[in-house]
Amino acid sequence: MKKADVIIVGGGPAGLMAACELALAGVDALVLERRTERVRNSRALTLHPRSLELMAMRGIADRFLARGQTLPTGHYANLETRLRFDALETDYPLTLLIPQFVTEELLEQRARELGAAIWRGHEVTGLTQDAQAVHVHSHSRDGAMLLEARYVIGADGARSFVRRQSGIPFPGTDTASTGILGDIVPEEPPEHPFLSMTNKHGLLLMVPLGKETYRFAMIDPLHQHLPADVPVTLEELQGGIERITGKTLRIRSTVWLSRYGDANRQAEIYRAGRVFLAGDSAHIHFPAGGQGLNVGLQDAFNLGWKLAAALRDDAKADWLLDSYHAERHEAGRQLLADTRAQGQLMTDFSETGTALRQLVSRLLSFPDANRSIAEQVGATGIAYQPLPGTGTNPWIGRRCPNLRLVLPDGAPLTLYQLMHGGQFVLIHHPGAGSLPEDLLESCADSHIHVITAKIEDAGMEGIEALLVRPDGHIAWVMAQGDTSAEDWYQGLRAWMLSAPGSKARV
């Protein structure tokens, strides 16, 4: 019987990101993917600022940037007013257009480099758990196999077998409106390579993917109530284009076409004992703004280091693993609320719908409103509740930008350069006095990288010490004027987890 620390069911973006994070931490991770080959007609096409920050924390952002096209803005409900990502405090104020299969290729390459095992052609057919392990039955062309893992991550999509087998409810709404998505090859290039249009006749979006191929999305009010399993015809496609644009676009060939819907569902719980859900297994929604893949990556990035830490430290396993649901379920709830709103704006072609789109587009012309929505779509505004006992500083729980640091010898450094190994990072201001020796020893035992450096970023004045989690969120802060240093150190100690090899695995 094959055993692994963690089995990941599903080799899409969320599953592969989880494999990367677990393998980086030295965890024996195994991915079981039903398909024998990667699917090239994948729907997702964008990486947003926060997802690129996650890649930068592990030193691999350039791999993705080299394979995609960059746009300086994002979109909200295909409205005329674009989202100003350049107003965000991030090193990646952009949308990266990169097909999902390329994202998967790069993540799989990274996971294998780190030692994760990826088995294709393995379909999971059974799953049970007890107090010690999860037992997984899989089937491949070589026959049936029984596997065992300490934990299982279900990243196996909207129809997740893991979710159903674990008895996790998936409440929400079914599809009421459908659109068309696919890749096409026009006979001649369109007049404008990037086309975005919404009017009373429907919605149309075209983005170049290569020399001849374009990603195509359309919502046609004449056909938007067709079931998702009804095949798309070329006549329907070209008729919709002519009505929406007023022009003829002759299509030489279609690479792939499908219908998508606006079903909106979220798993009631993201953890059931030793089983966890991530990505589309945990939430499905109208594909507005390209947020689904990005939120799935962020689910996995949140979960990976926590599972690795739980495998090292039995004493803190439960509260740490429970925090995955507490943090990411709320992020998923916000995602579904946002995509419901965008879906309403994108599918109502009545006079009322047109007036509403015009109003929201005008509101987005105000910088503060635009920034707020850009933070939501780009996921740079996500903040988590502080751990009890870690203090009330407003920075705690927030995403930490790529801080500009200056070492005592004057050498420059950035926070993300310190995070390539997936550790906690404790930044200590050189003018704040020495940290207690026992605290430094505890940091070393807990796999916390301690660095003495001055933070140059505006808004961080007065911070004497800062603990950043492996996923880039701030765990603990000590600021000037804090009267009892020992109380604040207790908040830091709450996050101290055993270093690799210092505890028996659970």
TrEMBL record:
Pfam families: FAD_binding_3, Rng_hyd_C. Keywords: FAD, Flavoprotein. GO terms for molecular function: FAD binding; oxidoreductase activity, acting on paired donors, with incorporation or reduction of molecular oxygen, NAD(P)H as one donor, and incorporation of one atom of oxygen. The keyword DNA repair does not apply. Residues 4-337 form the FAD-binding domain. SUPFAM superfamilies: FAD/NAD(P)-binding domain. Its cofactor is FAD. PROSITE patterns: PROKAR_LIPOPROTEIN. It comes from the Bacteria. Transmembrane segments: none annotated. The keyword Cytoplasm does not apply. This is FAD-binding domain-containing protein. It comes from Paenibacillus dendritiformis C454. The lineage of its organism: Bacteria, Bacillati, Bacillota, Bacilli, Bacillales.
